[in-house]
Specification:
The chain has 296 residues and is an alpha+beta fold. It has helices spanning 5-23, 72-91, 287-295, and strands spanning 31-34, 40-48, 52-56, 62-66, 102-111, 121-124, 126-129, 135-138, 147-155, 158-177, 182-189, 192-197, 210-216, 224-232, 235-240, 247-251, 259-283. The strands form 2 sheets. Strands 5, 6, 7, 8, 9, 10, 11, 12, 13, 14, 15, 16 and 17 form a 13-stranded antiparallel β-sheet that branches.
Length: 296
């Protein structure tokens, strides 16, 4: 016996929403669907097929529903969600590994660092490209300051990824500033890495810096590694080479505001960089619960 049109529409709605929710892709919410007879139901979508959708009712039963049984507005919504899924898949193609708290959207900045392009400012140190086309920088003793390489780039929620190779440096950082000053950074040396909050008012006020949990990792000279830095809500999270159980994480209310600038610093001898990419991002569903578990 065939399921009634109303049931089919309900199943389509339920299946669609539940599948989207499980995959954390656009369209994950439960929504109202209307069939060709004008009957409304609440449901989610499990799968979009060539000429039908697999729908799941709230009682768990699934039905394959012809697209012709769904209203024009529902068809348009499905097409919009499918386009969003394609866009999300394309955006994530450049990820070396998966972010933990964030879902990436479109790429908002990309530079393979094969040449020093307009927009970057070299405040201290020596910066050039090596024979393989990577950016290489080092601190100069005469500067009495770490080498700096920065550019303006407003951010809110974001995922930043870059590759680095230590070559004699004591340490290197990827830093993010806001309109007041230094905000946060990922600090890296041969023994590991840590995320940290910076002293945003430079000892002129009550704000203080804080280093979060340090991760021990062999990042010896001469080997390429990939770092990822997530900014989600009031939280920053760092990982290197996709080691999910090796993360540095911290939270502070100042991280919720807009930032203005990104950049690299180097203390000591050289560090090589390449393939810097920044995605706009949004928190994954349940990210606060996941964050709290990681902070415990």
């Amino acid at each position: 016996m065939k399921a009634p049109t109303v049931v089919l529409a309900t199943l389509a709605l339920t299946a669609f929403a539940n599948a989207q929710l499980a995959e954390r892709t656009p369209g994950s919410e439960m929504r109202t669907w209307t069939n060709t007879d004008g009957v409304e139901i609440q449901a989610s979508l499990v799968e979009k097929k060539e000429s039908s959708v697999l729908l799941k009712l709230e009682n768990g039963r699934q039905y394959d529903v012809p697209l012709e049984k769904l209203s024009g507005s529902d068809i348009a919504w499905i097409e919009e969600m499918e386009a969003a899924k394609v866009a999300a898949a394309e955006a994530s193609e450049g990820l070396a590994f998966s972010p933990i708290l964030a879902e990436v959207g479109s790429v908002i900045f990309e530079d393979n660092l094969s040449e020093i392009r307009e927009g970057w400012g070299m405040g201290n140190g020596e910066w050039k490209n090596d024979e393989e086309g990577a950016l290489i920088g080092k601190e100069l003793e005469a500067d009495d300051h770490a080498a700096t390489f920065r550019r303006n780039l407003p951010l809110e929620n974001a995922v930043i990824q870059f590759s680095f190779k230590l070559d004699g440096a004591r340490a290197t950082t990827f830093s993010i500033d806001n309109s007041t000053g230094h905000l946060c950074r990922l600090s890296i040396n041969a023994s590991g890495f840590t995320a940290q909050k910076d002293d945003n008012d430079k000892d002129k006020g009550p704000d203080t810096g804080e280093k979060y949990n340090s991760i021990e990792m062999d990042l010896a000279d001469g080997e390429w590694h990939t770092a990822m830095f997530e900014m989600v809500g009031d939280t920053v999270l760092a990982q290197v080479d996709g080691e999910d159980d090796e993360i540095s994480i911290g939270a502070h209310e100042m991280f919720t505001g807009s930032t203005t600038k990104i950049g690299f610093t180097i203390s000591g001898e050289s560090v090589h960089f390449k393939d810097l990419r920044v995605w706009e991002a949004q928190p994954k569903e349940g990210w606060e619960s996941d964050r709290d578990k990681l902070l415990d």
